[in-house]
Amino acid sequence: MRVHPPVDQNPTAPLPASSASTTAGPGVVPDFAPVPPGRPRRRHMVVGTGHRAGMYVAALTGEHADVGEIVAWCDPNPGRVAYYDEQVGSALGLGGAAGLPRCAPQDLEAVVAEQRVDVVVVTSPDHTHAGLVDRALRAGADVVVEKPLTTDAAGCRRITAAVAETGRDVVMTFNYRYAPRNSTLRQVIASGAVGQVTSVHFEWALDTVHGADYFRRWHRDKANSGGLLVHKSSHHFDLVNWWLDDVPSRVYASGALRFYGDRAAAGRGLVGRPRRGTGAQGDPFALDLRADPRLAALYLDVEHHDGYVRDQDVFAPGVTIEDNLAVLVDYAGGATLTYSLNAHAPWEGYRVTVNGTAGRAELEVVERGFVALDEQGNAVLDPSATPGAVTSDPLRPEGERLTVQAHWDRTREVPIPAGVGGHGGGDAILLKDVFRRDLRLGEDPLARAAGYLDGVRAVAVGIAANQSLLTGRPVLVEDLELGVDLRDGATTATAREAGEVAATHR
Ligand SMILES: NC(=O)c1ccc[n+]([C@@H]2O[C@H](COP(=O)([O-])OP(=O)(O)OC[C@H]3O[C@@H](n4cnc5c(N)ncnc54)[C@H](O)[C@@H]3O)[C@@H](O)[C@H]2O)c1
């Protein structure tokens, strides 16, 4: 089936050849019923008009324009709103900006009411999610929220209280579930091929282009992102929760900032660094915003509105997140996860090993085999755009491999069907579930569609791990009082109290 790959990925993320695919393998894209004639489109407001918002704007002005439309914007930076408003105008053939209503975050409720917004799409920085989700639900809208659901336990309590009290819908966009390789591993585990899962080993390597990007932007401050264990690893912890169909119960973490940041730089004699990447020459850590028209328009050209610098030096002071992390997670069902994240690897990808009573499954993914430098010594984001450039390393070719080996048997390879577009082929399929879920024909046997409870389960690990980093001790997830029982989704007293506290602050 042909699907339109969305504009999705961070420009520093790897662009393996598979991300250019527009034709999914058999069974990868579920079937949906046609839209009933005359059905009104759902009215969406996009909150946070940065890079990620582009995927939703493209979807609602393109493939999913028959089921939804954008009716309002919310962002403190008018320049970024104008960028997307132009895009909507151009998609609608208006010959200029669409002129949609827009507001600053404090006026969200008024615009939800005035514009009769059905769905608020939250694509703002992580630390703002809880407040925005809570307010959108209480203003009468459903919510689609990007990962991570929130960054701390108070945010979980606030969201679970709002869901319980409004009964409204929150969709978590866990796109990695939809990447065919990750879906296939879920199928393998569910089929019983490895027996009862006893342990999982999961290693994620981010390279010095994509990994470095978290140290240039708002993510570098833990108060904004919850650190990589929340911001990035919530994808990975969600995968493990979902693969095992289980919930985390106890977490121990160790880690530190050892490569990026000013102290590490000084220790390695890296002095006299440029303040920002734009204009820096011969620096493999620099990101020149002028090199990408979209980055220039969304950030460089509109800096004067809010002073946000998107290309800060990764070795500049102010980094409070970790770059090397190790986590041990006990699952309620008895399995153990050993997890590690490194954000300055020379290649990017991941390895997962699932041990079970009947054997072992192994998933190996290389998204970028090496970081190429151009003649000036700058990192090349997309070598395939440069004619003649070396794009593959024979010793570490881009690709994916899923194998299963039962006890007393040889290894067999499990075919992974093709996906569509970026994020391992997950984004395009996710968007169908986000915008046309009610038209889906048949159940999803993989249960990929995620809601707020999956969001809480995923950030629970990172929140507990952050506490463990501070105390040096293991943390029981139930002691975090996240406002909901992770096993059955029952709201707990703390969520109700959080709802009352939030109400007194509105
Ligand atoms: N699922 C994925 O693979 C994926 C990929 C990229 C980003 N994301 C998520 O999307 C979100 C946005 O990331 P991004 O890379 O687009 O960041 P970004 O910095 O490019 O965009 C964030 C936008 O939010 C705006 N903003 C700041 N404070 C706000 C507030 N209080 N209310 C409303 N808007 C506010 C900023 O002005 C900016 O326009 C993050 O939560 C991130 O984790 C998910």
Automatic annotation (TrEMBL):
<dbReference type="InterPro" id="IPR004104">
    <property type="entry name" value="Gfo/Idh/MocA-like_OxRdtase_C"/>
</dbReference>
<comment type="similarity">
    <text>Belongs to the Gfo/Idh/MocA family.</text>
</comment>
<dbReference type="Pfam" id="PF02894">
    <property type="entry name" value="GFO_IDH_MocA_C"/>
</dbReference>
<dbReference type="Pfam" id="PF01408">
    <property type="entry name" value="GFO_IDH_MocA"/>
</dbReference>
<protein>
    <submittedName>
        <fullName>Gfo/Idh/MocA family oxidoreductase</fullName>
    </submittedName>
</protein>
<feature type="domain" description="Gfo/Idh/MocA-like oxidoreductase C-terminal">
    <location>
        <begin position="187"/>
        <end position="475"/>
    </location>
</feature>
<dbReference type="InterPro" id="IPR051450">
    <property type="entry name" value="Gfo/Idh/MocA_Oxidoreductases"/>
</dbReference>
<feature type="compositionally biased region" description="Low complexity">
    <location>
        <begin position="11"/>
        <end position="24"/>
    </location>
</feature>
<feature type="domain" description="Gfo/Idh/MocA-like oxidoreductase N-terminal">
    <location>
        <begin position="44"/>
        <end position="172"/>
    </location>
</feature>
<feature type="region of interest" description="Disordered">
    <location>
        <begin position="1"/>
        <end position="43"/>
    </location>
</feature>
<dbReference type="InterPro" id="IPR000683">
    <property type="entry name" value="Gfo/Idh/MocA-like_OxRdtase_N"/>
</dbReference>
<dbReference type="InterPro" id="IPR036291">
    <property type="entry name" value="NAD(P)-bd_dom_sf"/>
</dbReference>
